[in-house]
Amino acid sequence: MTSKTTTRGEPAGPSMTYSAIQQPAAMSDAGNVLMNWREWKTLFDCYIIAAGKEKASSREKCALFLHVIGKAGREIFEELDLDDKAKTDYDELVLRFTMHCDPARNVNFERHLFFEIYQGAENLILTQMIRGIKGSYMRERLLAISKLELDDAVSWCRAEEGP
Predict the structure, then answer these.
(1) How far, in Å, CA of 33 to CA of 42, rounded?
(2) Which is higher by pLDDT, 122 or 12?
(3) Can you state the angle between helices 90-101 and 58-79, rounded to 10 degrees?
(4) For the chain, what is the radius of gyration of the CA atoms?
(5) What string of DSSP letters covers 79-123?
(6) pLDDT 10s digits, 60-86
(7) CA-to-CA separations, 33 to 29, 47, 81, 147, in angstroms, rounded
(8) How many CB atoms lie within 10 A of CB 69?
(9) CB 80 within 8 A of CB 96
C-alpha cells in the first residue's frame, strides 16, 4: 500500500500543514467600530487555529494579534494604557479591546430611541400614562383594550376619578 502525497511531495491528509494560510486583513477603522472588531476578531480566531498557533504562548499571541490587526488596531492599543504585564496577556488584551470597542450602553438613550422608532409620540404618552396608574384595577382595564387610544384612556381615567 502506497501513501498519498501532494504535488509538492508532502503527505496528504489530516496531518498536512498549511504553509500558505492568509492572515486576515487589518481591522477597518471606517464605520461601526463594534462590528469591525467583532468581524476581525472572528477571522483572527479562525486564523490562530488554522495557523496552528492556538497553543502558542500568550506573549506570542499578543505579538501576532498586534501585527495582524493593523494600524487602526495598534492606535486603539496605544489608547488602552496597559501595563507591561497586560501587554503580553492575550486574554487581557482581547478583553480590553472588547471593552474599548463595545462600551457600556446608555440605557436611557436606547429606551428613548426605542420609543421614538417603534411608537409615535401619542403611543408613548399612552404607555407612560398606563405605567403611572397606581391602581392595578384601572391599569388592567386599560391594558385589556386592544386598540386603546389616548383620548379614550384619559376619559376612562377621569370617569374613574369621579367628579
Answers:
(1) 14
(2) 122
(3) 30
(4) 29
(5) HT---HHHHT-HHHHHHHHHHHHSPPP-HHHHHHHHHHHHS-HHH
(6) 999 999 999 999 999 999 988 888 988
(7) 7, 21, 19, 41
(8) 22
(9) yes
Cell numbers 504535488 correspond to 7
Query: How big is the CA angle at 44 (ends 6 and 17), to the nearest 5 degrees?
Result: 15
Extents of the domains making up the chain: 33-101, 107-161
Whether the pTM exceeds 0.85: the reply is: no
**Between 103 and 50, where is the model more confident?**
50
Alpha-carbon span 153 to 22, nearest angstrom:
63
152: its cell numbers: 379614550
Distance CA 149, CA 126 (A): 8
